Structures are given as structure tokens and as C-alpha cells.
Amino acid sequence: MSFWELVLCGVVALIVLGPERLPGAIRSTSKFINGIRQFGQEMKAELGDELRVHELHQKLKDAEEKGLLNLTAEEISALTELRQAAADVNQPYGPAATTTPHPTPVPSAPAVETTALTGSTAKPNEQNQDKPGVA
Prior knowledge:
Elements: H1 3-65, H2 73-90, H3 95-99, E1 113-114, E2 121-122
Antiparallel strand pairs: 1-2
Helix pairs in contact: 1-2
GO biological process, one term: protein transport by the Tat complex
Protein name: Twin-arginine translocase subunit TatB
Region (Disordered): 87-135
């Protein structure tokens, strides 16, 4: 709209509503327009988040199909982002959450087997030499 069209709309509104009701009508109209803008921004952000989740999910599928070997840089960054998101989900909300550092990954311990008969534990590639008959 041009300047003169806005002036004409203002004059018509002043004549129709009168000077007492015009300020309230302007406030109501501006609140309505701001509400529509805010709704549009929220929808845009939500759609962007959903598209990002879909993209990360697809890259995770591609990485799993490769057996998590020979991954591209995009797949590695997607896996890193997903791990970070999982760690963030486990963090509590509140002031303490902002000062708590993210947990560092702990290297996994060697696999240990438990035999059902003796209740003893042994590493998978070791043999119990002191107990005959137990492999």
C-alpha cells in the first residue's frame, strides 16, 4: 500500500469508528497482526526442526547400512550431532544444567563372560587353566 492509501484508510476508520474507539481498534489490529506473524515464525521454526530431524534420521540410516564404516564427513557430523542431542536430553533443566559439563565418553571395558556352572568370570579369549573341564 502506498502512503496515500494508508492515509485514506485512516480517515475512513476515524469517520466510521470515531476518535474514542479508534485507538482501541488500532491496538487490537496490531495485536492480531503480531499474533499472526509470531504463529508464522513458530511454524517456520518447527518445520525447519522437523526437516533437520528427518535429514539426520536419513543419514543415520545410511551410516547403519554401511555398518558405521567408511562414513562420509556428513554422516560423521550427523552421528556426532545425534550423540550430542542424546546427551543433552539426559541433562536436567534448570540453572545447574548450564554449569554441568557434558559427560565424556568412557572407553568400554573388555568383554567378560560368566559361566553358568561355576559362576566364575573370564575374558573371552582366555582359558581357565587352573580348572580342568572349563573352557
